[in-house]
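This part of the workshop introduces the protein records we will be handling. Backbone structure tokens are a discrete shorthand for how the chain folds in space. Once this layout is familiar, the rest of the handout is easier to follow. The record below serves as our worked example for the rest of this section.
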Amino acid sequence: MRRSREIMTGGVIILALLASFLLLNREPKRPASDSASQPGFVTSSGSSPKSPVPSAHEERQRLGDAAGSSQLPPASNTRLRRGADERFPAQLDVLVLDSKTHLPIRGATATAMNRATRETVAEQVLPEGRGTIGLPTGAFYLSFEHPDYQERGLWIEFNNAAGEISRQTIELRREVEVSGTVRDQNGAPVSGATILFLGDPRRKGPQIVTGADGKFSCRLPAGRANGSAVKGANRATFISDVSETSPAVINVTLPITSQTVSFTGHVFNQKAEPVEGAVIRVARADRPARDVSYTQVTQEDGTFALTLPAWAIGMVSVSAAGASARVERMPFSADVERDFVIETQPAFTVTLLTPEGEALTKGFRVEGLGPSVSKIMKLRDGRYYSTAYPVDIRAVAAEAGYGNSEVVRLSAYEPEVTLRIEPGGNLSGRAVDPSGRPVSRFSYLLLEGHNLYLSQSLVDSPDGSFAVRHVAPGRYTVNIVADGYRMQGREIEIESGRDCFVEMILQQEAGRRFGARTPRPQ
């Protein structure tokens, strides 16, 4: 009897110890509101708020009724442009706010442009100031526009990870209508004066030029406006406060102390068609490198109008995309009216075929090889032209996750060119630190001997991975560059039809910075 009680007591103790062990080693459940599982919006400066994404009720309380109760539209509502990939491995959630009121800007437009090809791959109107855009793999420049606000943009990059999500909050500054008049020291209106504003070097559209009555108008963000009025060698600076609540009027006195002449005309191509976007640049012929040059871009009808100082001889250059530059010496002692004819090169389209039979029209760039590198140029519509023939070309398709194409020689102009990526080996890898944790932002280069085969900059990969399909067989050196780490290289060999994996262990190095963000394109 006593023996039975001892056995029963021992069994109870063992069961109690086993239950305690299970309780101590059980993984606790994370609450649904944990910020690790619900990342907050990332501001345009790249910082991430500590709080999770607010609920619809909390956001309406913070933003007011303007936020509404509408849900984010599905990614399928994104309007894709020519050649865009219908598959969306990544998702971008955007919220566009007024920088002063912090309310959503209804009707803002979000546009995504591929960084390598400069092609617009997606464009979406945000009726409630927020939305979801599906994007393919690659690096993109995002621009946000609204008729009443100043445009703003940022860079973003998606790696090969399916389901990748990025949340961006963008604040735009409201613009107001500004008008004014430029008069000389005697109170007479000054026509043909150019108005320039500091801090806005990339202003789109035609230049701000006063009319015959000396008046001008434009749109500016609210705040202090620093600018200048220029006519020939005459210049006057001004400072004015632009308010959102009242019409802004800027009146400028521009003393005319130097004689000026007008230089007007048209730019046509060899078919007598007007050339839009041609650049007219004029400088003094006796000191073109030291003196100020005067520049204007032709309008849709090919016209231009410049006001210049009176020079004995000026040097005029006319250039345009897809055309050979033209340079002439001209007298500017009096008003000049002159038309120019430039010879434009015919442009061709490029289609890239993958070994799987997929036809790509984006995610790659075309470059010339050898002495002809400078002969291949790209137009805004995505077509290419060569300034001379014959020329050797190939496609660099790292943005699309592929190796380079075959090299093709163009003996003469062809309206359509097809390049092919030959079957090869697949390269994949992972960048980690000495503790084994992934390095999530890095750039990689693939060198063939001392020559660059391909490169991909500013890769955002949560698990530190990268991949390139169909790399040409051969020996290469893989180099990884990341912020705060020493550059790491590894020699590899790619064989056709085989996979090659390389793990790159990056050693930390304090005080060294790589991979700075790319500035906005000019």
About this structure: Confidence is low (pLDDT under 50) at residues 21-87, 201-205, 512-522.
